[in-house]
Design brief:
InterPro entries: Cytosol_ACT (IPR040170), HOTDOG_ACOT (IPR033120), HotDog_dom_sf (IPR029069), Thioestr_dom (IPR006683). The chain is an alpha+beta fold and 165 residues long. The protein contains two helices and seven strands.
Amino acid sequence: MDETNEAVPLSESQTEMTEMLLPDSTNALGRALGGVVLHWMDICGAISAMRFANRQCVTASMDHVDFIAPIDVGEIAVVKAYAFNTGRTSVDVKVDVHSEDPRTGEKQETTTSFLTFVAIDDDGNPTTVPDVVCETDAEKQLRQEAVEKRQKELESIIERMREDY
């Protein structure tokens, strides 16, 4: 396993994709299928992780996802991702999606989630990843917000599990 553990700026991982929602990706109401949105999130998150780790990365997990607003046919989906934390071989990525109405310019947050990817070497084995470094105050703020939001969501999940059992 590669044991280099240099630091890479958060900015190296920032990735943005845009997709136009076409009828073949919608439900009977003309809104984005959840699976299509999850697919976009997984692709954007993987690109972010690979840019950060400079390695092939595979999806290990996706946290809880709430669809808080629809994306309607003809609207543009903007998917943004960045690496905010690492383990020894894993990269945690925050992925945000918002919709844009190209006629009015109106933007709406649609969903956010956290995905974890594992970096793999040429033989398909997990390999070490660099640490995240924040070079600007804006990057520090992005990272802090992601860490805090994910921690809050994990605590909420644990609390719900305790209530259910």
